[in-house]
Specification:
The protein has 370 residues and is mainly alpha-helical. 67% of the residues lie in helices and 6% in strands.
Length: 370
């Protein structure tokens, strides 16, 4: 048995080395996705074009307007009146308008409400909320500084002192890049193995293999192990890029990360093999693998969109997506550390899914043509 397995492994490794597409999917595609999302996709608001209208220049108005000049979140543009700023907003030249009325100084010193007006382009609701929050923060900080300089208390019923845990810099890259490790491993594990058995059926080599003493269990080992090594290599590359290229912190254990990554990769390999032995066609297997594994991992894993914000029915559906459990583990290990209350339940779910998909793929693998 060991000689037959060694022969199958040698065959698969040679086939991988002679197939540039396998190497590209295992290493070049993960690197490309990390570079694309790490540098090209950001949920942070920085250098937001903002129109600032000061109807009556004065010390207080200029002091507050200068706050936006010295902030990395804003790219302020001064306008002489409300109408010109409104035209710029309609044309998409700015994302919001901060209007300081002529009686700004009197309203700040007095008890009148709303000393400034904020108008936000609400086409993109997420960007609008971010811009609103940043302007409110800038206003609150400026007001505290001005009143502190005058030895006057800030009359607020609640004094907010925010403290942000795990990602104090609010870098969306720290949130996105760990999730991309799961997406990359889904591509390597599911897409490559989905083509393996289908390719054997199309070429007729599986029929020749069936007349040999090789058992289907040995075939399964010979198919899974080489792509397991490829997948772990792609995971190591993705983690190395996350740590050294994108400066994402890692506060957990590398051994725990390796173990959980191996569990998730077994799930992906099992799903790919199940698709491959069911379809027996490379094109169909590839399409099914993308629709059944990559897209759910991309949209329903919590990597991009918060699962808690989804409808209840969709939240239940996410429990069928293996990437959901691995993304939770990755984000915990990178940003929080070894939080066993998160790692253990998600790892157990991955074990159950790996046993299910690999077992089902083994049952579908028969040593006959029907």
């Amino acid at each position: 048995m060991s000689r037959r397995v060694r022969g199958l492994l040698r065959k698969e490794f040679l086939q991988v080395l002679r197939d540039p597409s396998s190497i590209a999917i295992a290493f070049l595609m993960p690197a490309f996705l990390l570079l694309l999302f790490g540098y090209g996709v950001s949920m942070d608001a920085s250098n937001v074009p903002l129109a600032v209208v000061v109807e009556q220049p004065g010390a207080e108005a200029e002091s507050f307007a200068s706050v936006f000049q010295h902030s990395r979140y804003f790219a302020p543009q001064r306008y002489i009146d409300r109408a010109s700023a409104r035209r710029a907003l309609d044309a998409g030249l700015v994302d919001g308008i901060v209007l300081l009325p002529a009686d700004f100084a009197a309203r700040v010193k007095g008890d009148a409400s709303a000393p400034i007006q904020l108008i936000v382009n609400g086409v993109n609701a997420n960007s609008a909320r971010l811009l609103e929050g940043y302007v409110e923060g800038a206003w609150r900080n400026w007001l505290e500084r001005e009143l502190g300089a005058r030895a006057m208390p800030l009359n607020q019923p609640v004094m907010l002192q925010p403290r942000i845990w795990f990602n104090p810099g609010l870098r969306s890259r720290n949130y996105l890049v760990p999730g991309l490790v799961a997406i990359n491993m889904t591509l390597v594990g599911a897409l490559l193995t989905a083509l393996v058995m289908a390719r054997e059926w199309e070429r007729g080599t599986l029929e020749a293999m069936m007349v040999t003493p090789v058992s289907m269990r040995e075939v399964l080992i010979g198919k899974v192990l080489p792509y397991f090594v490829l997948g772990m290599g792609g995971m190591a590359l993705s983690v190395a890029m996350a740590l050294w290229l994108f400066q994402v912190p890692f506060r957990g254990s590398f051994w725990v990360l390796t173990l959980c990554a191996a569990l998730f990769l077994l799930v992906a390999l099992g799903m790919g093999l199940l698709i491959s032995v069911t379809t027996r066609n490379q094109f169909v297997a590839g399409m099914v693998a993308i629709i059944a594994t990559f897209l759910p991992a991309f949209l329903l894993s919590g990597m991009l969109f918060d699962i808690g914000s989804m409808p209840v029915v969709v939240q239940w559906v996410t429990h069928l997506v293996a990437a959901r459990y691995f993304v939770a583990i990755l984000q915990t290990l990178f940003l929080a550390g070894d939080v066993w209350g998160v790692i253990v339940p998600n790892a157990l779910a991955l074990i159950l899914m790996a046993l299910f998909f690999i077992g089902l793929a083994r049952r579908r693998m028969h040593k006959h043509l029907e």
